[in-house]
């Protein structure tokens, strides 16, 4: 079916109960324009980790949809997300990736803002603006809500709607197993991999929403090199709240090497964190039970719409897929470490990440090629009228508690060979696209009549 | 400082020319995908490092070991990268990209270690694949080379790509 300018057409774009998704939603500029409003101005979007803005004056820059954003810890200690656009002519007032500053000054006409976004300096204020300009009303536009979960900062333009924790919902169970298993928390390796892929943002996001199906063939290269064995048929795909995970089940090492601790055995890269993860599992098992602890590391995962991660025995990464038009995605990706890891292990984990992921990674190289060519195959007049087939595991889904073997495992699950998560990803997409926007997209300027 | 300020300008000029010839040979091996010959230019002790370039407020050129890199390889992982490019399932390079490496601004100076030189060069790598998928990579390299008969071995290579965001779907080329 075709999605045109009429919203009514969107009703049938995603038929998740049949495993059908209209390809026009990946290529149609009008659908994309609506996404910037209904998806990107009405959801919790990942901004960064608190440790990246630890001190007053620290900032990082990112995007929410296509809007450039400064995440800044003000000198009052409070973290804000500010639209990186001068209120005078719109120029980006901050053009660095990160740093520490006491003010943001626009290079164009020198309007100057505090690290909290307040307009503090306006050249010719008395000579030219006397009695006309109220500086209090012309601070940098602040993102309506910024909230933190386990140190992960998210922003949302919508004034109404669920809190971040309510929005995450049951997914917090899995999020905690990935990012909060070390009581000391996580740290982010300084620096980021940043690159563009000529594909729609949903292609990248749904892949991380746990497309286990692609691993064996897309990533046959590491297997050919002896870094990976054939995938086992036992595993899971779980959707809960706004999140998704999927991986092979851990196997007891006793099946492989005589030990007692579980290990994801399809990788044959050195498992440098094995001892540490075994200790984490032990601690988590005492608190949450052995079945949930045995999920660590949890594999592929994502939060709707654009935050994603990979949690493996060898390393862990987090990333965000910023849309740059219907056919381009900007990826920001970081290597994430448990703070309690010994320094030499941290270094080895970073190097395994760099060998396999990032734009030059032995696995990730092939993803970029594949996603670009998906876009090329869907772009044409006929191509965009077809449906994508998301039927894998249709009718075979169970409760996550049944798959995991623990009543405390929330959500809906398929086995490892399932696209249930992708069906629910597009179900979320459809729901947001059909709901009226609550974002204050056109909040009037002071004085506008 | 120019070469003329050096004590042995003629020798230095000869050295730079010799190193440049070595780099042209190396570029040709990569452009012709003769990876088995290329890896022979390294030793079992070689390092291969390409830090990411971060735009830091007030500190734009700080790069530090231990921070994120595109490559932070020893000989073992560099061998894996080379092997991966010849794999039957290297989708990013099947069919292979056409690449052209332009190596310029070569300088070489004797190091304090007998038989070793420090060399710098600039590169522009053009990659064209399939129909009109085109990527360009630009940067500089800082090498420590060791004389090996009539040729050289690369002991240490630092690659400073000038890109902050790579505008390429992947980076399946070597530098």
From TrEMBL, chain A:
Similarity remark: Belongs to the bacterial ring-hydroxylating dioxygenase alpha subunit family.
This protein's UniProt keywords: 2Fe-2S, Aromatic hydrocarbons catabolism, Dioxygenase, Iron, Iron-sulfur, Metal-binding, NAD, Oxidoreductase
Keyword Metal-binding (UniProt): yes
Gene3D superfamilies: Naphthalene 1,2-dioxygenase Alpha Subunit, Chain A, domain 1, Rieske [2Fe-2S] iron-sulphur domain
SUPFAM superfamilies named among the record's database cross-references: Bet v1-like, ISP domain
Domain annotation Rieske: ranges: 44-126
Pfam family, one: Ring_hydroxyl_A
Protein name, entry field: Rieske 2Fe-2S domain-containing protein
InterPro entries linked: ARHD_Rieske_2Fe_2S (IPR015881), RHO_NdoB-like_C (IPR043266), Rieske_2Fe-2S (IPR017941), Rieske_2Fe-2S_sf (IPR036922), Ring_hydroxy_dOase_asu_C_dom (IPR015879), Rng_hydr_dOase-A (IPR001663)
UniProtKB/TrEMBL annotation, chain B:
Keywords: Dioxygenase, Oxidoreductase
InterPro entries: NTF2-like_dom_sf, Rng_hydr_dOase-bsu
UniProt keyword Oxidoreductase present: yes
A Pfam family assignment: Ring_hydroxyl_B
Gene Ontology molecular function terms on file: dioxygenase activity
GO biological process: 3-phenylpropionate catabolic process
Membership in a protein family: Belongs to the bacterial ring-hydroxylating dioxygenase beta subunit family.
Protein name: Aromatic-ring-hydroxylating dioxygenase subunit beta
Organism name: Pseudonocardia bannensis
